[in-house]
Design a protein that fits this description.
This protein is of the alpha+beta class and 109 residues long. Helix 1 crosses helix 3. It contains three helices and six strands. Helices cover 25% and strands 41% of the residues.
């Protein structure tokens, strides 16, 4: 799943300010995000946008403060050493299959 998220996100917008690089791409109502910290930490996130998505760095970096129109449904953290990894599925339902299908469709384009 993380490879799919990263592959989709790096084909979209980029915010490279300071020691953090944020890649994101909107596909249908999903926002795929890959965050890379230059110290070797990575975050893979998927949001559901219930309105028109407008990029806001703080909302992407701190997903619990996303508001009602941007819901984080998947959040995975890992570091370069492989010693830390945490995955959170933040909403139940069939969104995982829908995300996979949306990313695969994006990759075919």
């Amino acid at each position: 799943m993380n490879k799919l998220i990263r592959g989709a996100a790096i084909r979209g917008g980029i915010d490279c300010l300071g020691p953090i690089e944020i890649n994101w791409r909107v596909s249908e109502s999903y926002v795929f995000v890959f965050i890379e910290e230059y110290t070797g930490k990575w975050w893979y996130r998927v949001f559901i946008s219930t309105g028109v998505f407008h990029y806001d760095r703080d909302r992407i970096l701190y997903p619990k403060d996303g508001g009602e129109d941007l819901l984080c449904v998947y959040d995975c953290y890992e570091n370069i050493a492989g010693s830390e990894q945490e995955i959170q599925m933040l909403q139940e339902g069939d969104w995982m299959q829908q995300i996979t299908a949306a990313v695969e469709e994006e990759m075919r384009e």
